[in-house]
Specification:
Length: about 325
């Protein structure tokens, strides 16, 4: 009887323990489940110059590598301005050559004028000396002597002018004119370079490697600068984003890890690492439902990346995580 009583007591204790455990599980609040989504970088591609679509080398769903030519535009206006800029460079370079050189014929003509002026000086020097001798014998008058002196002085001035013209012909244009011509060449070349850059922008390259998700461009359509042609997403570097109230962030910091599941990939546990915790705008505020005893809470974006490479993730997929994560 005594043994039977002990057995009943043990069974009763066990029953009470089991009942307590069941009551604890029954009254325990369910774990909080937060839902996020998969995100990835998206690049909207638009031309820097206006043009008409000439070729399309990519379509929605295509995977493209960085630098791949995905479209080509044409613009007769840009091509015409390029030719004008090339012609302007030629004109400015020709003018620079002109101001930095003198034709041999011009130099020869200046030297000939100098020689003629020198001959006149010699002639009038002899005439002046002859008149000076004649006046001593009375064979010449004072007026003739003075006229010979004036002729000599005029010949000397003419010789000086011819010498200056010869030096000018040899030296060419002034330093200021040469500097101006050189600056005009640089200006024309800069304008040509700008036109060449504009024409090169008619070829559209993929700025990143990824998948084309949107194509607005159609053959033959005209697009202005800045109008979107394609959208490309980077599927190689996706991340998970969650919007959480600030009271759920206790102890969470950049670099922490936790596990998530992606239903689209079968629901297996995926380890992730927090890379960013950032406050959302004022519009994203959780408002209190009671007039007293509660307060507004800000919403924070928590961004995390897979700890290991994961295939199959696409932007927009749902991500599920129990909160707070295990271990916190």
């Amino acid at each position: 009887m005594k043994a039977a009583g002990m057995v009943r007591a043990v069974v009763g204790i066990i029953a009470l323990v089991v009942l307590g455990v069941l009551l604890w599980f029954a009254t325990r609040p369910p774990p909080l489940v937060v839902q996020g989504e998969v995100s990835a970088n998206r690049v909207d591609i638009s031309p820097r110059v206006a043009g008409r679509i000439l070729k399309l080398n990519a379509d929605v769903g295509d995977n493209v590598e960085k630098g791949t030519v995905i479209a080509e535009l044409e613009s007769p206006q840009l091509t015409a301005t390029l030719h004008l800029a090339e012609a302007a460079v030629g004109v400015s370079e020709a003018d620079l050559t002109r101001v930095n050189s003198t034709r041999p014929e011009t130099i020869d003509a200046a030297n000939a004028e100098l020689a003629a002026a020198s001959a006149d000086v010699t002639l009038y020097q002899e005439e002046s000396a002859r008149q000076a001798r004649l006046i001593t014998t009375g064979a010449s008058t004072q007026a003739q002597v003075e006229q010979a002196a004036r002729n000599l002085e005029a010949a000397i001035r003419k010789q000086e002018s011819a010498a200056a013209n010869a030096r000018l012909a040899i030296a060419g244009s002034s330093k200021e004119e040469k500097a101006l011509a050189a600056a005009q060449v640089e200006q024309a070349r800069a304008s040509l370079n700008q036109r060449q850059v504009d024409v090169s922008e008619l070829v559209i390259h993929a700025p990143i490697s990824g998948q084309v998700t949107t194509r607005v461009a159609e053959l033959g359509e005209n697009f202005s600068a800045g109008s979107p042609l394609f959208s490309i997403i980077d599927l190689q570097n996706p991340w998970f984003t969650f919007n959480l109230r600030e009271d759920l962030l206790k102890g969470l910091k950049v670099g922490d890890g936790f596990d998530v599941t992606v239903p689209a990939l079968g629901g297996g546990s995926i380890p992730v690492k927090v890379t960013m915790i950032n406050a959302q705008g004022q519009y994203a505020t959780w408002r209190a439902t009671r007039a007293t005893g509660d307060f507004d809470l800000r919403t924070f974006e928590v961004r995390a990346v897979p700890a290991n490479p994961l295939e199959g993730l696409r932007p927009g997929m749902s991500v599920i995580a129990s909160w707070p994560p295990a271990g916190r």
